[in-house]
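Sequence and fold:
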Amino acid sequence: MMWKLLQKMSKNLTLAIPAMMLAGFIFGIFMDAVFLKTLIIPFTFLMVYPMMVTLNVQKVFEGGDVKAQVLTQVINFGVVPFLAYITGLIFFKNQPYMALGLLLAGLVPTSGMTISWTGFAKGNLAAAVKMTVIGLTLGSIATPLYVRMLMGASIEIDMAAIFKQIVVIVFIPMAAGYLTRRYLVKKHGEKGFKTSMAPKFPPLSTLGVVGIVFIAMALKARAIAAAPGMLAYILIPLVIIYGFNFTFSSLVGKRLLPRDDAIALVYGSVMRNLSIALAIAINAFGKQGASAALVVAVAYIIQVQSAAWYVKLTDKIFGPVPLDAEPPLKTAPQNLAEPAPDVREDVREEAQIPMVADIKKILFATDITPTAKYAARYACAIGSKFNAKIWAIHVVPDLLAEYSAGAGVTIKDPEKQEEFNRDAVESAEKILGERIRTTSEKVVREISFCPLSKDRIMVKTGDPVEEITRAAAQGNFDLIIMGTHGDQGIEDILLGSTAQGVIHASKIPVLVVRPS
């Protein structure tokens, strides 16, 4: 019962946070809340450690989006903290700890919500995961320095105490979470961890969040009762900060980045790690820290609501998801009986070996990237030679759940997952159909017939290796043809590529084509 309640709260933070604020307020009015301070450390651990277990630190080593990563961190550390500081000076001139709360809310960027909302908006999820890891690490190191530099004149800053709290509430849980993740992945496998173990951790983090919010509100309850307009006044500077942040990040992303990276940049700079900010406020600044924690708690409401509305505006701001056009071939069309020179020599020799098998059905597995055209050439050539029918299959991974789990958020909303995957499937079908049409047009210039057809397309959702091997077995295919990117990135080394997985799992022969 308790577990189901926590899962519901995780999916409805916009309701859970205000409810716990109200509960904390009522408790603080009628009870002496001082004893709650003894619960701050355990709730802080509950809040941070589960997020670290599900955070996939390895993602930070992947490349391909350097410009988006640099721009995001420039905004995170060169714009937002100073915006929060100046706003605090204007609205909380005589309430320095309230101003501190605004600054803390703007200092530690990215959270699990960065990945979830990037997924809902159909942005670059891999880039968002990387932004989360980099932003969290840099923010934890930079926070004491920014607090000292900007707030040292108005409040007493104990740098040693803040660094100590950062170590206790960020780096120790990060190390413990990393070791826990490694142990669980080793025991259950990567897929088993993601499907059965990772979803168990985010609700625990939610318990920590609502517990800290309750404590912060209870400690400030009587001060709020004496000045009831305080909460409404706190909302005003937060709305200004988030409004400016969304607008500025959108303009930068639209002007300087591709659509997917731009969306990741927006959520990578606007979504702040309010859990860490809350923990620092209430652990590092004694009794006065409750004022800063109150501001951070109210920020939760603004952040989640604004992120949800921004998803609805994404297509209007950045345009709809484009259909990737295949780039023109670098060489003139060539006879497929003599493969193009940009195909590896060992693949060419394998393709020329006489085949005695009776090939009637070919499954062409494609990731619809430009490099897949090399495998398409082989599919057409072999299909034409054996008068075989070709079915094209593309698998759309359940990226939203996968990357959200990798950053400490569990997506268990079937309606949202179905909507996200349906859009991805429809987009893939359009791209795949267009790719097959253009490939067929090029191939028929060289051979009389290309058996690739837009009428024989399968788009599945799930694990690519499982879906490809299942479709091949159930469809009684005689041969699987697929491409590979030819690079060995960190993910290929650690997890193995889709091509490698299909080779090991399939009982049906697999022809893998790699570009030079």
